[in-house]
Design goal:
Shape: globular
Radius of gyration: 26 Å
Largest sheet: none
Number of helices: 14
Distance between the termini: 45 Å
Helix content: over 70%
């Protein structure tokens, strides 16, 4: 009878498979236990991985690595400072406006709902509208309180701000400058049997690098296009919902649908049932359609081939473990697991082939 013990021995008897599995599980446990303390480090790793995509082409054009790192890092600092002093104040102002106007928004939504029985008397009863207004008012007030507490909780303290403003740039610079030195130092702690780990890393490194750089570009492009479109239409919350729409691409198939609700609700409050609201919804739908059918295939030319169910499951699992960074790394981590599962049969085939044929001696 095929027991769980036999299943475990069959798959984890090879030391290379066991090593790779322990590295993966150990990494997830470290992130789970020390997650809050490691956020600046992980942010530095992600940004360094992103900037490496600009350093490498300069090296291929015979630019010394140190000079390439300095140039790319200087451009990164200029862009970060521009966003910090231009975009962040606009988003902060729009969040404050949303919190300040929340009672008026609730009143407008309730007044709009009260007109529904007059417009559609055959479908909506007045008694149902009264209960809906009371329930919706309580729910919007709860959401408003959560928005205020959430915005306050995300205001960084002086120590946290200093860590991200001072420590993170230094980490990024040294990760880029001493990339080979750091990787060799890490390899020195690993056991000698690393063939499977190297094979899996070669398969995963390309996909993870493409995913991180591609996902950042997708966030930037979708966010900028959404902000420009909403501002052209005269939408009061163009910057805030442009940023939210950009980050919504981190959650495939779900993020776009969730963001549709605040876009439609705030547009309805600003314009009411009008042609302007219709234009806003149509524009948002076109942006999402272009993102899914044009932008994603172009950016992710070597896309991670995972089933949508596997992607959603990975987002739920890793997002519950580590919040935003869990959602961000859900697909790369799922790719690592998939690469390990696919590498195990290949390793067995290689071992069986080696055992089935004699190894040639020195006289061969």
């Amino acid at each position: 009878m095929y027991t769980p013990v036999e299943w475990f021995r069959q798959r984890f008897s090879d030391p290379q498979i066991l090593l790779l599995t322990l590295l993966l599980v150990g990494g997830i446990l470290v992130l789970y236990i020390f997650g809050p303390a490691l956020k600046p480090f992980v942010a530095s790793v992600v940004i360094a991985y992103l900037l490496e995509g600009f350093v490498r082409p300069l090296e291929q054009h015979r630019v010394p690595r140190l000079l390439a790192v300095v140039l790319v890092f200087a451009v990164f600092l200029l862009v970060a400072l521009f966003l910090l002093f231009s975009l962040v104040p606009i988003i902060t102002e729009q969040i404050q406006r949303l919190v300040r106007d929340l009672p008026d928004i609730i009143g407008q939504v309730q007044a709009l709902i009260r007109t529904l029985p007059e417009r559609y008397p055959a479908f909506i009863e007045p008694g149902y509208v009264d209960s809906l207004i009371a329930s919706l008012g309580n729910r919007l007030q709860q959401w408003g309180g959560r928005l205020v507490s959430l915005s306050i909780s995300y205001i960084p303290g002086v120590a946290t701000l200093l860590v991200y403003v001072v420590l993170v740039p230094f980490l990024i610079l040294f990760m880029l400058k001493d990339k080979s030195l750091i990787l060799n130092w890490v390899r020195g702690f690993l056991p000698p049997h690393q063939q499977l780990a190297k094979q899996v890393w070669q398969d995963v490194d390309r996909q993870i690098g493409n995913f991180i750089r591609g996902k950042v570009w997708e966030i930037v492009i979708v966010g900028v296009v959404t902000y420009a479109t909403f501002r052209f239409l005269g939408f009061d919350y163009s910057a805030l919902l442009g940023v939210v729409t950009g980050f919504s691409v981190l959650v495939p198939y779900i993020g776009a649908a969730v963001v549709t609700i605040p876009v439609a609700m705030l547009g309805l409050v600003q314009w009411g049932p009008s042609w302007e609201l219709t234009q806003l919804i149509i524009a948002y739908g076109i942006i999402q359609a272009l993102d899914g059918n044009v932008l994603v295939p172009v950016i992710f030319s070597e896309a991670v081939k995972l089933h949508p169910v596997a992607i959603i499951l990975a987002i739920l699992i890793f997002g519950s473990i580590w919040g935003f960074w869990g959602v961000f790394f859900a697909i790369p981590l799922a790719t690592v697991v998939k690469a390990i599962l696919e590498a195990v049969p290949r390793l067995r085939e290689m071992e069986e082939t080696t055992e089935g044929y004699p190894v040639p001696g020195p006289d061969a």
